[in-house]
Specification:
The protein has 300 residues and is an alpha/beta fold. It has helices spanning 34-44, 52-65, 82-92, 163-176, 204-214, and strands spanning 9-14, 69-72, 99-101, 135-139, 142-146, 181-185, 218-220, 229-231, 238-240, 257-266, 269-280, 284-296. It has five helices and twelve strands. The strands form two sheets. It has a six-stranded mixed beta sheet. Strands 4-5-6-7-9-8 form a six-stranded mixed beta sheet, with helices on one face. The longest helix is centred in the first third of the chain and has 14 residues, at 52-65.
Length: 300
């Protein structure tokens, strides 16, 4: 995937699909923990707002756009059940372009066997093992780095953490791919105030410092369910959020959607063109955001 002048590579960014859980749910033995609270929340509230019709519309629109690569920043499941991981894998197979995934907090609600959960997504995570994140996907001039911020947390918490080992490997990967257009994928945003503290990335300052020191073209995240554009703290590196792919909301910036990101090589760096498409069943499709910027050589 070479980034030539006048020949952009198109990335599709989506997140927080929250595919419907199996029905009926598995044995009660799986819910004698934090999942019981999550099931109550699902039945009372979330089942009425995360709609399969919306995520199907997003998937179909992405497939029609024929991107070169699809980047999914986590939370395909609701409770992190092994059955949900298998269902999500089947859903990922319906994407018509190559796809990469990183886990979200719902995908790690409690400690489970990696072989029965995350390993189901191995084809979309560079065959990465649980303790081997971040992974690196190289495709021509592109270097995609996938971080895992998903950790089991206490009831009523949805926080994440990258940890010292991942941060060290992230630094090494960013340094080794300095001549590439580097795109970092993470579920929890490495910036404060985009989500409440109980949902935050606990080591966000340390993660942001690594990215600031070594540079990147952009950082893509999910988790907030908001279509936002900010920066990694202390830098001008774009930090790009996306609405949930399945969320029905009255707030326009939270309408289900996806980001189309076109990248072209320029003499002085990389030109990035960001377009956000959002969908509601009442209004149909709309373009809600369009931004273009230049990433200088060495930064991206």
């Amino acid at each position: 995937m070479t980034l030539n002048k006048d020949s952009p590579v198109v990335l599709a960014h989506l997140s927080d699909v929250h595919l419907p859980p199996p029905s009926p749910l598995p044995s009660w033995r799986h819910f004698t923990n934090k999942r019981a609270l999550s099931v109550a929340s699902w039945k009372r509230h979330r089942v009425h707002h995360h709609l399969p019709a919306l995520s199907d519309a997003i998937r179909e629109d992405i497939n029609k756009a024929r991107p070169g690569l699809i980047l999914n920043t986590g939370d395909l499941t609701n409770f992190g059940l092994s059955e949900e991981f298998s269902n999500a894998a089947a859903w990922l197979r319906t994407m018509e372009a190559p796809c990469l995934v990183v886990p979200g907090n719902h995908d790690a609600m409690i400690r489970e066997s990696w072989q029965q959960t995350g390993a189901c997504w191995s084809p979309w995570m560079q065959a990465c093992e649980e303790n081997a994140f971040p992974y690196l996907h190289e495709q021509g001039d592109l270097a995609i780095i996938g971080l895992n911020s998903a950790i089991p947390s206490l009831p009523f918490m949805a926080c994440g953490r990258i940890g010292k080992a991942q941060r060290a490997r992230l630094a090494d990967l960013l340094a080794a791919t300095r001549d590439r257009c580097r795109v970092v994928m993470i579920h929890h945003p490495p910036r404060g105030r985009l989500v409440p503290w109980r949902k935050s990335l606990l080591d966000l300052k340390a993660v942001a410092a690594v990215i600031a020191r070594h540079g990147a073209a952009m950082v893509l995240h999910g988790h907030s369910h908001d279509a936002t554009l900010s920066t990694v703290p202390g830098t001008s590196i774009p930090l790009i959020g996306v609405a949930s792919a399945s969320l029905h909301s009255t707030k326009p910036w939270r309408h289900s959607g996806w980001n189309r990101i076109a990248i072209e090589r320029r003499d002085s760096g990389w030109e990035v063109d960001l377009t956000t498409r959002q969908f509601t069943q009442a209004l149909g499709w709309r373009y809600s955001r369009h931004r273009t910027w230049l990433i200088r050589d060495g930064q991206g």
